[in-house]
Amino acid sequence: MSRPPSPCPAGGGRRVVFVFNVALAFMPGLYACTYLRTIMSDFASSCFSPSQPAFVILRSLTSVQSPRLSDPMSAKSKPRPRTKPPGQRRDDLMNAAQQLFLQQGVASTTIEQITSTADVAKGTFYLYFSSKDDVLAALGDRYGQDRLATVRAAVALKPADDWAGKLAAWAAATVSGYLDSIRLHDILFYGSRPPTREGLVDNVTIDFLCDLLQAGSSAHAWSIEDPRFVAVFLFSALHGVVDDADIKEKHVNRARLVHRLQQLCFRAVSLPSN
Question: For residue 195, what pLDDT is reported?
């Protein structure tokens, strides 16, 4: 029997091979696959009938979907903040200034060095501070608040009715905080400007001690005529003896120093030394 004539036009197979080779040579892989799928689909439609297996196989091959390349630009990444909150930017400037003051002193530190260390433009400095003295004053205020927070936390650990324990905790925490940061204290309050009389007696640590003494008097834990007078006396005495020990002793005996100051506090409010 003679074979039925092929519905495929003469040379159709060769043309498909030729187109396939050209597509691979001149088109990127993704576009070549898309183009060839169209060509092969048309070729299959013209060459085979749906009842022939070859049509099914070829149609299956041409119906394969090309993988979709992900567009890196379309991926939405979480945007990074371009600016910091004002409070954080101010803290960055203060931290940079404190670091430089400790390293090279206040006089040798410039505003350009502060802004460079804080990684901000020079103009940003003047959004928060008017001068180097202004940032120095801000550091002094922060120093006082940090020391007060430490003292307040130590006193809060004592039972509500343990007034002697609270007074002893005030003395111990104040001494330790001063000794731990005495170099920074001297730079902020003595290094670039002479201490003022107001600064020596008007600060948050004295205010806290005054309130503590007044509360103890109200609770009949001790009897003192003028809590403010006693608070200024104890604070000034504490700073004086700590300065003397830091200058004259190579290694300050903290335990002995704290014990002696606690005994002084007890005598000042007429409590037994023990």
Answer: 66
Contact assessment for residue 269 and residue 230, using Cβ atoms and an 8 Å cutoff: yes
Helix, strand, coil % over all residues of the chain, rounded to 5: 70, 0, 30
pLDDT tens for each residue of 57-94: 334 444 445 445 445 444 455 554 557 787 799 999 99
- The answer to whether 16 and 43 have CB atoms below 8 angstroms apart is yes
What is d(CA 251, CA 245) in angstroms, rounded to the nearest whole number?
A: 9
Q: Which two tokens stand for residue 57?
A: 């196989």
Q: Is residue 26 exposed (0-12), middle (13-18) or buried (19+ Cβ within 10 Å)?
A: exposed
Q: Collapse the DSSP code of 84 into the 3-class scheme (helix H, G, I; strand E, B; otherwise coil) and give the result.
A: coil
Across 4-83, the runs of DSSP E, i.e. the strands, are none
- Residue 63: how many CB atoms within 10 A of its CB? 9
Distances (CA, A) of 222 to 51, 68, 184, 250, 263: 111, 83, 35, 37, 14
DSSP state of 225: S
Both tokens assigned to 135: 């940032």
Q: Strand, helix or coil at 258?
A: helix
pLDDT of 117-160, one tens digit each? Answer: 999 999 999 999 999 999 999 999 999 999 999 999 999 999 99
